[in-house]
Amino acid sequence: MTDTRRRVKVYTLNEDRQWDDRGTGHVSSGYVERLKGMSLLVRAESDGSLLLESKINPNTAYQKQQEDEKFLTDLFAQLTDEATDEEKRQELVNFLKEFCAFSQTLQPQNRDAFFKTLSNMGILPALEVILGMDDTQVRSAATDIFSYLVEYNPSMVREFVMQEAQQNDDVSKKLTEQKITSKDILLINLIIEHMICDTDPELGGAVQLMGLLRTLVDPENMLATANKTEKTEFLGFFYKHCMHVLTAPLLANTTEDKPSKDDFQTAQLLALVLELLTFCVEHHTYHIKNYIINKDILRRVLVLMASKHAFLALCALRFKRKIIGLKDEFYNRYIMKSFLFEPVVKAFLNNGSRYNLMNSAIIEMFEFIRVEDIKSLTAHVIENYWKALEDVDYVQTFKGLKLRFEQQRERQDNPKLDSMRSILRNHRYRRDARTLEDEEEMWFNTDEDDMEDGEAVVSPSDKTKNDDDIMDPISKFMERKKLKESEEKEVLLKTNLSGRQSPSFKLSLSSGTKTNLTSQSSTTNLPGSPGSPGSPGSPGSPGSVPKSTSQTAAITTKGGLVGLVDYPDDDEDDDEDEDKEDTLPLSKKAKFDS
């Protein structure tokens, strides 16, 4: 006998077509001499007695499929028949529960075939009938069966409930035409009602059902095809037919400024509802937004901040924190219009100086607004609640909010200042590498002179302007930048083309006198050198172009004339530079000397 034993429950159909329980045992397969072939054997787990011995025939698979279908049809018929004895129904539903539990041991392919068979035979309509019964044990077992189906294939359950809703809509339309009213009872609404009406003090069943509902409304396990999207269809169905059932206990308990019922079990139930609603806020952006704003759900939820149960008040605060975390201006305008920070501020002040979870959670929410710089909420909080919060100094959150608010007002009152900051930021952080290299070289060329002269570089156009015509900060900044770039280009050209001749700098002095400082070589001018009277570039040489008549000066030291920039002596480079300069056209030499 091979070691393929599995734990099973054995039932036999009696003459009255009722199922008799033979017991629980382990099934295995093996060759049986008496039956002359391979057989299935089931031995009781208690004493090892033989509960079943059946030969496997070649056509058993086909016969077994037919028998399974007939068996399941009879099973569901007895479960849903009102004439079935309560004890018998309880026994049958427990059998179906164990049947589903046994399927978890099957291979994935076999498990898929098992649940597809159950679905085709009508297990979901049968569960809907069973869940509507008054027997709590039967309903509990039906809930377990439903959980197996949801965990296996939530799309199968969603498809069933949407088809059911469509059929009910069609029936309701016909009844309305006949002036007959009908109450729609949907499977998913039965699940919600059982969650709400759970009598267990610990709400164990409600917690299980809430988890199933969250699986059903989770877009992460919804399918999308080319022709339709399950998410769009199912969420549209859920918010139309089911959301009002889910929020009914919340709306019924928050009609005043504090919860109508504040006992422990009610608080636990509302905490479960809020947990599911918070999940919807995070995953159902469009549908839940419309529902919250149109039904004023957030204001009702914040009533629970006044609950004596801290866990319920924290659930309400977490719901609002999730909404603020989306940074959605539709939500923000709704919050500001309804002044929905007031319950939070009241709870914060009532909590006093106690350092607890409520205190930390509220401060964290305001800190998020400050750090993320949500301008609309920052202005709303400071304008309406600053007087109540200004004395809170053990954290810098509220003072930081006040500072943010003042900065916003400053930018609104002086938009040019904000533009200036933007330009400076772009200039500081977005310069390319070439510009950076040019500026560094310019700094090395001009830094020493600036320190010696002690005079700032200003635009030449500033000399002719009156004090009343001073340019605004942005224009001044751009003018200085252009001047700096032009001087830099001129210096680079003179440096590259003048050989040993030190570069000339044009500096516009702050006194308004335009002075051209021309540096000269510290050595004696030799005939033919760039600075000698006989050189082509000198003022007295034939063919030279007269220089500007503006005042010229040379920087002197105690040792005599020195160049502004010292270049290393290299005879070969000097000869090459002098040869190049001698061959330059007179017009270019005049341009470079000017």
UniProtKB/TrEMBL annotation:
Please give the InterPro entries that the UniProt record associates with this protein: ARM-type_fold, P4R3-like_central_dom, PH-like_dom_sf, PP4R3-like
List the Gene3D superfamilies.
Pleckstrin-homology domain (PH domain)/Phosphotyrosine-binding domain (PTB) (2.30.29.30)
- Residue spans with biased composition (Low complexity)? 513-529
Q: Which residues form the Serine/threonine-protein phosphatase 4 regulatory subunit 3-like central domain?
A: 66-407
Q: Name one GO molecular function term.
A: protein phosphatase activator activity
Give start-end positions of Polar residues composition bias: 495-512, 546-555
Q: Point to the regions of Acidic residues compositional bias.
A: 444-455, 567-581
Region of interest called Disordered, as start-end residue ranges on this chain: 444-473, 494-594
Q: Which SUPFAM superfamilies match?
A: ARM repeat, PH domain-like
Any GO CC annotation of this UniProt entry: nucleoplasm
GO BP terms: namely: DNA damage response
**Residues making up the signal peptide according to the UniProt record:** none
Among the Pfam families in the record, one is PP4R3
The family note in this entry says: Belongs to the SMEK family.
Protein name stated in the entry: SMEK homolog 1
Which source organism? Piliocolobus tephrosceles (Ugandan red Colobus)
Taxonomy, top ranks, is:
Eukaryota, Metazoa, Chordata, Craniata, Vertebrata
User: Gene for this protein?
Assistant: PPP4R3A
